[in-house]
Design a protein that fits this description.
Helix 8 (197-202) links the parallel strand 7 and strand 8. The protein is built from 12 helices and 8 strands. It has a single domain (10-230), classed as TIM Barrel, CATH 3.20.20. The chain starts with 9 loop residues before the first strand and ends with a helix. It has helices at 27-40, 59-73, 88-101, 118-131, 142-145, 151-157, 174-180, 197-202, 217-229, 232-248, 256-264, 281-293; strands spanning 10-14, 44-46, 80-82, 105-109, 136-140, 163-168, 188-191, 207-210. The protein is of the alpha/beta class. An 8-stranded parallel sheet has the order 2-1-8-7-6-5-4-3.
């Protein structure tokens, strides 16, 4: 790995895709969210990941959302475009499109449903890297994909020049320590679990691709900056306040709680696509209570 990655740090929002009640993408609201994040100090924007409902966007929408975010950001922070797919050829197509639209990085999730072997994962990512020059961040999230990329496989992939880091969301923060021991010092480690980011930072993570940043961007930006600055005490104090929010935003399948919260805040319309449905009434009470405690509602 030889490409510069100094901007992959702090609070990188796993951006929701705002939708009208009909389920249509709300392009004006998407621009508004990007503007809000830029004003709030978010360090980078990640469109069309899991939180962006990539699994239910059609191919044209997937590419258009990335294009819209890149255009609105206009180079002010890095855009890490979600371009993963469970078919290698499809992932290459998405990544080529993101590269052409000016994304700074791609985020490529392990192929879901297929359950590839570790060798299959290695070949999948190498094929993408051979086809596209866009710097790639790997994404391991076995609770979603039924596929767990092992530290040794990450280390093999870290030898590829354009593979520059990993978003780790396996649920075990110590995996970051395992990876750190095997990869070059400049290989970027990012938390994919908001509640574990502080612990992962202790193992070498430089920040988080965050769900919580959707609803509390300035709080997460402050936390992320504390990590960047090496201010452990400040980071720990902010993290303690945010833990109840990290927990409640996963009370139902993400991004259901986050999208409900953003709608309650007047940032987006209450649109989400089947098979995901609106937040239950009981969970709405709990999400509202915890956001009110931090002054977000």
């Amino acid at each position: 790995m030889s490409q510069a990655t100094d901007d992959l740090k702090g609070s990188l929002v796993a951006l929701v895709t705002p939708m009208q009640a009909s389920g249509a993408v709300d392009w004006a609201a998407l621009d508004g969210l990007v503007d809000w994040h830029l004003q709030s100090g978010t360090h980078g924007i990640v469109p069309v990941g899991t939180t962006g409902e990539s699994a239910t966007l059609n191919h044209a929408e997937h590419k258009q959302v990335i294009q819209a975010v890149v255009r609105r950001v206009n180079g002010r922070v890095p855009v890490i475009a979600g371009t993963g797919a469970n078919a290698t050829a499809e992932a290459i197509d998405f990544t080529k499109a993101a590269e052409g639209d000016g994304a700074d990085y791609c985020l490529s999730v392990t192929p879901y449903y297929n359950k590839p072997t570790q060798e299959g994962l290695h070949r999948h990512y190498c094929a993408i890297a051979e086809a596209v020059q866009l710097p790639m961040v790997l994404y391991n999230v076995p609770p979603r994909t039924a596929c767990d990329m092992q530290a040794e496989t990450v280390a093999r992939l870290a030898e590829v020049d354009s593979i520059v880091g990993i978003k780790e969301a396996c649920g075990d923060a110590s995996r970051v320590a395992q990876i750190r021991a095997l990869v070059p010092d400049d290989f970027v480690l990012l938390s994919g679990e908001d509640a574990q980011t502080l612990t992962m930072a202790g193992y070498g993570a430089s920040g988080a691709i965050s769900v919580t940043a959707n609803v509390l961007p300035s709080h997460m930006a402050e936390f992320g900056q504390a990590l960047v600055d090496g201010d452990d005490a400040r980071a720990a104090a902010i993290d303690a306040k945010l833990q109840p929010i990290h927990e409640i935003l996963f009370v139902e399948t993400s991004p259901i709680p986050s999208k409900w919260a953003l709608a309650a805040m007047g940032r987006i319309a209450p649109g989400i696509r089947l098979p995901l449905v609106e937040l239950t009434a009981a969970s709405q009470v709990e999400v509202r209570k915890r956001l009110e405690q931090l002054g977000a509602l």
